[in-house]
Write a structure and sequence with these properties.
Radius of gyration: 27 Å
Distance between the termini: 87 Å
Helix content: 10-25%
Shape: elongated
Number of strands: 7
Order of helices and strands: EHEEEEHEEHH
């Protein structure tokens, strides 16, 4: 059984020492992510490699994989989405330092704190990997949860329809005050 990823780490020290971490994170620990999910059950496998790149910048690379449960916006049923995401960021101390990086480089601003919550390092990538509109991958079994109304069929007047302002159209009933 894989062990849990440490909750807090010092990413700058890990990068200086070229260390790697691997383990699991419960989906329920991703507090921002679970707002987008149908369920907070399950675990994510995480592999993180800290080090330095060819420009001597501290970097974090790795992978996050696992399954999350989403709610289909068509049938309102739950379905599983398999994730396998690469991670690649440059570790920086401030927003000003992040702005000096080339546009194609993603930065993770660490701020003044020496330690960081491991979930915070991966959660943004997980949220960005979710589909904009969640829908079942196999739409053949996905039946809309609400009836789609045909506008032409709806335009015909039903005998039981009440029209409280219908008399306003009748010139004989007009009030000539």
């Amino acid at each position: 059984m894989p062990e849990r990823l440490p909750v807090h780490v010092d990413p700058l020290t890990l990068a200086d020492r070229g260390r790697a971490l691997s383990g699991t994170v419960p989906v329920s620990a991703c507090r921002r992510l679970v707002h987008w999910l149908d369920s907070d059950e399950g675990e994510l496998a995480v592999e993180l490699q800290f080090g330095r790149d060819e420009h001597k910048r501290r970097v974090l690379t790795g992978r996050v994989s696992g399954r999350v449960m989403l709610t289909c916006q068509r049938c309102l049923g739950a379905y599983g989405l398999d994730l396998d995401l690469p991670i690649g960021v440059v570790l920086v101390d401030s927003e000003a330092e992040a702005e000096t990086l080339p546009e194609e480089v993603d930065a993770l601003v660490l701020g003044d704190g020496a330690t960081m919550h491991t979930v915070d390092m991966i959660e943004d990538d997980l949220i960005l990997a979710l589909p904009l509109i969640a829908k079942c991958p196999d739409s053949s079994g996905c039946v809309p949860a609400v009836e789609i109304f045909d506008s032409e069929r709806m335009s015909g007047q039903d005998a039981g329809t009440q029209r409280p302002f219908a008399d306003l159209d009748d010139p004989d009933n007009a009030d000539n005050s």
